[in-house]
Amino acid sequence: MEKRVLFKGIWLPLLLILPQIVITAVFFFYPAGQAIWQSLFIPDPFGLSSRFVGLGNFDYLLSDPYYRASFVTTAIFSTLVTLVSMGVALYLAVLADRLIKGSGTYRTLLIWPYAVAPAVAGVLWLFMFNTRVGVVTWYLGLLGYDWNHVLNEGEAMGLVVVASAWGRISYNFLFFLAGLQAIPKSVIEAAAIDGARFWTRFRTIVFPLLSPTTFFLLVVNIVYAFFETFGVIHTITSGGPQQATTILVYKVYSDGFVGQDLGSSAAQSVILLVVVSILTIIQFKYIERRVHY
Amino acid sequence: MKAGISPIAFLCALAAATPVAAQTEIEFWHAFTGRLGELVAEQVDSFNASQSDYVVTATHKGNYSETLNAGIAAFRAGEQPDILMVFEVGTATMMAAQGAIVPVYQLMQDAGADFDPDAFIGSVKGYYTTTDGQMLSMPFNSSTPVLWVNRDALSAAGIDPDTDLSTWQQVGAVLDQLKEAGSDCPMTTAWQSWIHLENLSAYHDVPFATQDNGFAGLDTELAFNGPVQVQHIQAMGDWARDGKFIYAGRRNEGGANFRAGECALFTESSAGYAGIKSEAQFDFEVRPLPYWEGVEGAPRNTIIGGASLWVMAGQTDEEYKGVAAFLNFLSSPEIQAKWHQDTGYLPITKAAGDLTREQGFYDANPGTDIAVTQMTAKEPTANSKGLRLGSFDQIRGIIDEELEAVWAGDKDAQTALNTAVERGNQLLRRFEQANR
Lengths: 293, 436
Prior knowledge:
The complex is a heterodimer of chains A (293) and B (436).
Chain A (H helix, E strand, L loop, with lengths): L10 H28 L2 E3 L6 E3 L3 H7 L2 H34 L4 H9 L6 H11 L6 H8 L10 H29 L3 H9 L4 H12 L1 H17 L2 H7 L11 H11 L3 H26 L6
Helix pairs in contact in A: 1-13, 2-13, 3-7, 3-10, 5-7, 5-11, 7-10, 8-9, 10-13, 12-13
Chain B lengths: L6 H11 L1 H4 L1 E7 L3 H17 L3 E7 L3 H13 L6 E5 L3 H6 L4 E2 L1 H8 L10 H4 L12 E6 L1 E6 H6 L11 H13 L4 E5 L2 H12 L6 H4 L13 H15 L3 E2 L7 H6 L3 E7 L3 H7 L4 E4 L17 E8 L4 H14 L2 H11 L6 H9 L2 H4 L5 H7 L15 H16 L5 H22 L2
Parallel strand pairs in B: 1-2, 1-3, 7-8, 7-9
Antiparallel strand pairs in B: 3-11, 4-11, 5-11, 6-9, 6-10
Helix pairs in contact in B: 6-15, 10-12, 16-17, 20-21
């Protein structure tokens, strides 16, 4: 059942949502519109001249095999970041939910990493896995494993995934824990009396009841992995080795700010916008159907 | 004590401070931090103290790329500084921006300043002049790659530390000996594209790109997939496979390994001097960059890295006069000689080099003149004057990616360099389109 409040007239509701509309217009619609407009041109860096090329920038990008490969890299990266950060968070939340003593301390400690900015997190992880002075590298060396993410593509991907997922686990943990605590104890107790073991209870009762939270986190985490992991990539690998960790948003940066190719950079932003919109629509259309509120 | 300051002294102080407002202010954006930042501030202070018409304000704007971006963004907003420091790979971008810059030769002419472009070292000046010899930007900090040797590491492996390392053939033999003696890091490098492709090409007098390495026109194409470059990259790739060449990263990450004494040989900029001198706990030495014996015309001269100062358009004549005075001050022998001795960057004028020699610096610090000799011993050719390529920062990124494929053993040198040339050419064509 839904609750609805009806306003009389149109001015009061308009006034109430005005701040949100203004903010969205100034910080989203205007820049997005600019990006779409710029993507049709090849400007020189100083803005002295600009050549209209129609869809030339898109044509140039989509015929570039390295740009297309970046889609695959982004898909792998986003999937891994989402799975790792949500999986670990759910596991920790289930454990913390069962705790009776000291749960506050665990919760506080688990939430801490969220306060660390992605770029700083990147530097921290890089330091631990530094090929020369890293602590983890040294221990791996003792075990006979030669860690070298500077040349090994798989290791580089693993490192940026872990560094990106780490701070995110806290955020997901908070939501999962709140979701778990909102599940009525009586339902679980009833199932326990019927003889359902922990795993059965989790699979048939807890997880379905948690689905709104899971769905929300899925959407938010994919958007995070697409856009906000830039700092981690920039500090740890700069997209390397070769192109192993060049995700789409990193390429927007490097073409725009290193290459001063604003036309291509704008076109990439537009493509990214379309990709994320499609992903979100798919999620709401197909996955949300399985969500029970 | 407050009572100690008399009203008269206060007025005097005010009077002394007031003329500042009448001085013309000149804004200078640079990319230096730490020790280098302090040295730049020192230069600016001594200029400000030397005359009373102009005040230069130096502002740090982040690393090289960030400084260039800040300058570009400021120009778009009409808030550009008078002087912008731009690294050498941004040269083509600045050059193509006619309307955004004032060429230095023009500036000096208009300001009626006494300016002699021939005072500068040819291979430094060449990087920043047009094909007909007009100077576009003022060279500031320039360095060139050399070979750094850990003498203790050679001795420990039973190798005579004075052994000849002039050619890559000799270096190869020493790497074999080091590896056999159990060295974990016989050789490492910084700035792989700059040293092992750009300088390699100039040093062996082969083109890095067509159209005189881009000096003669925007329709230039990359050409670094020739036999000399392939031979070198293949040799490096083989050394990497055998653990004789250790790859540490795209920038100067290898420096930490060398300074800690882990690596025996290290190819790095001559400006690595300050850092190595302060940190190395071992006997080190500078040698000229090796060349391949048997390549005709080698060794020629190496080319520079570093930055130059560009004068931005849209300022008043009065400010340009001040800029001209400041640039002339910076290139004076005393200032340049001090800069060269403090930092390991090259002296940009012949006079500064001579002054340094007279002051006895080279005798007291053997090897510090090797970079100068390496660059100036021979007149630069069309292949060794420098590089002028659009989107060059990104092309270097592509080269880094492809070289990593060689070091990892995923590609052979010829395939990797062919791919790099092909991908880089696409960027050059985009740059040509944007600047037509």
